[in-house]
Amino acid sequence: MSYGRPSGLPFVDAMTPAVLVLAGPVTREEVTGLCEDLRALLGTGGGGGRDPVVVCDVAGLGPPGLGAVELLARLQLAARRAGGRIRLRDPAPALLAFLDLVGLSFDVEVEGQREREAEQREPALGVEEAVEPGDPAV
Questions:
Q1: What are the CA-CA distances from residue 67 to residues 29, 73, 75, 121, 132 (Å)?
Q2: DSSP label at residue 63
Q3: pLDDT tens digits, residue range 100-125?
Q4: CATH code, 47
Q5: pLDDT tens string 31-77
Q6: Would you call 38 exposed, middle or buried from its count of C-beta atoms within 10 A (0-12, 13-18, 19+)?
Q7: 79 with 60: CB under 8 angstroms?
Q8: Cα separation values, 29 from 16, 17, 35, 80, Å
Q9: How many domains, the chain?
Q10: Which domain holds residue 94?
Q11: pLDDT (tens digit, 9 = 90+) per residue, 77-105?
């Protein structure tokens, strides 16, 4: 028995979350379509794993306002109803403050976050810092 090999890297593709790019001010009519797109991404397995995640790139969403809050709240609700969740990528600080003000919390992914986390980690075992003579003891 033989079968065709699926395209892509199965292990990596299963772990890579799908991305939904949100650009410009979104009208109420567009919200319904974006919720359907989100459910489709979660339904195709693009969210990956047991806890499917869709990353919503909100960098181009525009100025924060009630329209953006409503959109993100509806997307979060649609994701939860589909058994998944959303994570915001590159939100403006003003948008995060506005979401916090209205009581909504989201997982946030910031560009360069992994690099900063790697810099903050402890050094690997076996690595010692050089000490110069005359340095004060800490």
A1: 11, 10, 12, 39, 58
A2: S
A3: 999 999 999 876 554 444 455 555 55
A4: 3.30.70.260
A5: 999 999 999 998 865 555 567 899 999 998 888 888 899 999 999 99
A6: buried
A7: no
A8: 29, 26, 11, 21
A9: 1
A10: 11-111
A11: 999 999 999 999 999 999 999 999 999 99
